[in-house]
Description:
The complex is a heterodimer of chains A (352) and B (384). Helices cover 70% and strands 0% of the residues of chain A. By secondary structure, chain A is an all-alpha fold. The termini of chain A are close together. In chain B, strands 1-2 form a two-stranded parallel ribbon. In chain B, helix 4 packs parallel to helix 6 and helix 4 packs across helix 11 (307-322).
Amino acid sequence: MSTARLARPSLDRSIGTVVLVVAALGPLIFSAFWVSFILTQVFWYAIAAASMIFLNAYGGMISLAQVSIYGVAGFVLGNAVTTGETKGLNLGLSPWIGFVAGVLIATIVAVLLGAVASRSTGIYFLMLTLSFAVMVNYFFGQVTVVSGFGGIGGIQNHTPFGRPDLHPNRLYYIALVATVGVYALLRYLLRTPFGLVLQGIRDDPVRMSSLGYNVTLHKTLAFGLAGFVASFAGVLFVWWNNQISPSSIDITAALNLLVIAVIGGLHRLEGAWVGAFVFVIVSDYAQSVGFLRGIGLTQTRFETLIGLVFLAIVLLSPNGLLGIWEWIRAAVPRATRQARGPKDEPPQASPA
Amino acid sequence: MPLPSDGRPQKLSARLKALLVGNGSRSAIVGRTSLLLAIVFGIAWVLFIAAPSPTSGASNWRSTTFGSAVHDPTDFLKTLLDTLTYAGLLFVVASGFTLVFGLMRVVNMAHGSFFLLAGYIGVRLQKSYTHAGVFGLSSSQVSLWKDWVLPLVLAVLVVAGVGLVVQQLLLRWNQGQELRQALITIALSLIAADQIMAHFVRGGAESMAWPNILGPDKQLAVGSVTYPWSRIFMLLLALGIGLGLLMWLYQTRTGLVIRAGVDDRHMVRALGIRIERVFAVAFVVGAALAALGGVVGASFAAVDSGVDGQWLLNSLVVVIIGGMGSLGGAAVGALLYAAISNFAAVYVPTTSSNCCTEYSIILTFALLVVVLAIRPYGLFGRPA
């Protein structure tokens, strides 16, 4: 059970602080488009990706079902709060009840899926969760009682804080608080006995089992917890997007979240935010790069571009952009030390 | 029949007993008994209990599209044949997936993309050979060899070539890194889906026409049902493919090496056999099977953007149920999955208020859950 990956060099911490301060002052610094579109989107994408990275980095499970779990939260919220202007149940409940119901039901679904999936490992887990993801997508497409093909719209009329399109800064700050809260929660969890057992299971399930820990139960709970986190992304998504349809949670969406996590780095929580930022920037600004347009990679061919980026990352740096960053951080002092001549080296915290 | 020789074969009675009793704990027995009851109820429902929708008045909890087998033996037989023939197509596609996994431990997430690519190549070639306009072809215009078999062969060759390039360029040097290989094929599936969208998709589903000898007017009379020959062809094709794969794996030297490689890759290599070459062959065969399924699938149903994900799901479900790497498992998985999706479509109760709701996906999910609860590695699988 290595706790080495918990140790963070102070440079990373100062970068984190600067980013946080800049984000807190967001509306003063950035244009309205950046605040309401780019950054809010980054925040909820990052929450979903963080739930995926949490499962992989600390539980050794790559789940492709996170998008469907946030979809469940979004659909439940949509069905609960709308009042007749759209498909679905149109229950017309209070926005707060819708929010709580969305998170609660998504978490329950996650625990159930986790109970089925947690006995499998590695590549089987990946395949199983991908099957879940596609089935949840088809479920909402086929079952017209709760959604049907067109999905549920008009959700922005029913938020607890007014219409997000009229008050974009409110949603921005809600998303910021949620995203910071998720980071703090997951970081805290890693130091709890539960988090430590989870990391033990990741490293050696057989040993943990013979030490008396219930491996399946811990994995199920971790999956449920990741579902809880992902459900916040779902809630923010429907508030931000105003509508949710089966195509919002289809296989492409599920894989896009994997792309985000892999680009950032599947082994460190911070990768979620890095990956989400890069993904959103690429998806919005790729068309303005002349070179890319020249070789036919325009906005409409976004999936090709993002697929190529993903492929390059997987082939060149399996730990994502954060892996490259860690490599640079390790390489620079080594180079300067060699230039200055050999001195006694401080022990490095090894990025696993 | 599992690809690997999995130890001593157990007696069937012992296997059945193990399946019924589990580990002998009370919860296992209760769970399995209730499962058995559920299965018996499901069969009884289809055979006797379900009732046809009343032509007037409110439908009740028993109302289904046709009613039970007793009420409507013709449609029951049709559904049964649909199941068998659809299972044939599922087996063709999933056997390629399971072959690659069994030998190389590569989960080819681009399997659905191979399927779709071949389907579109078939569609485009057939349209250009027959000089078809924007409107659909009828089978009477389609000659067997030039307009159907030739596109099929070309599509299979192209996709097999793509498979070879992918394997040699991207997967070969990552041998053994299962997750990385899965991620690579996921990246490929994203790129492929988008490029197919750019170059093949023309605003909507398209399909190939069966050749004239399998046209919609060619029907086989089975009892009171007439049944299209084209669907029976899918079943025969699957039987042929299954038989061919068995012959290949158990009667040839390559098959011998593959089976040895499934059990112990390193020992095979140490014995001086070029297993890299066998890997390439297996991957190419896997891609070719997806492509074959793609062309047949394009003739049987249609191709459209999104079909790749659908067939990746189909392959995944079949091999997760049957057990990864097992040919027999793929056959059983295909049958179970096809049965669930075909029977659920017509035997799940319908009410007038939810006319278009399909619950087959929930039953498919239930099937997956039940199988995994009893056998975490699938019916015929074994731990990696």
